[in-house]
Amino acid sequence: MINSDYLTNNNWLNICVRLLFALLIGAMIGLERQLKHKPAGLRTHMLVSLGSAVFTLINIQLSGEQVNVDALSRVIQGITAGVGFLGAGEILRSSSQKSQSLEIHGLTTAAAIWVTAALGIAAGCGLWSLGLAGAGLTLIVLHFLKRLERFDD
Question: Where is the MgtC/SapB/SrpB/YhiD N-terminal domain (predicted)?
Fold first, then answer.
């Protein structure tokens, strides 16, 4: 059990700010995916981040002043596994009849959904710096490192 002010500050305004922060983080990543015409775009990423924050906040709210780290850890594990299934739905395997080779599509979007859930958990816990840094690094990976992949072709 831990007692941290940033985690247990459960007033109405703080909760709303955490949820809005989760939406903002999801929107940042989702907009990048939307602009690249990926199946999971703005709304999907916003909802994944918001849902992760809500599940996290439910646990924190039910804990009261003393947050049970074991219970919070189980919530995070459940979110991670559940979002993994959502991401799996984004991965498509197709084969070309001419070459008989398999192509896999959607791995990066699935990974972005997974990261968005983690950032939603950070927002739910009130970890502002971690959320912003993670969102910024995710955008760098999704947008700027794509250019490096083009040199490989």
Answer: 19-151
Q: Can you name the residues that pair with 94 across neighbouring β-strands?
A: 103
Contact 33, 45 (CB under 8 A): yes
4: left (phi over 0), alpha (psi -120 to 50) or beta: beta
- Cα 13 from chain centroid? 23
Q: How far apart are CA 79 and CA 72, in angstroms?
A: 11
Q: Phi first, then psi: what are they for 61, rounded to 5°?
A: -65, -40
Give 145's DSSP letter. T
Cβ atoms within 10 Å of 47's Cβ, excluding its own:
18
| 104-113 pLDDT tens trace | 788 899 999 9
Is residue 121 within 8 Å of residue 52, measured between CB atoms? Answer: yes
Give dist(CA 25, CA 118) in Å, integer: 10
Rg (CA), the chain: 17
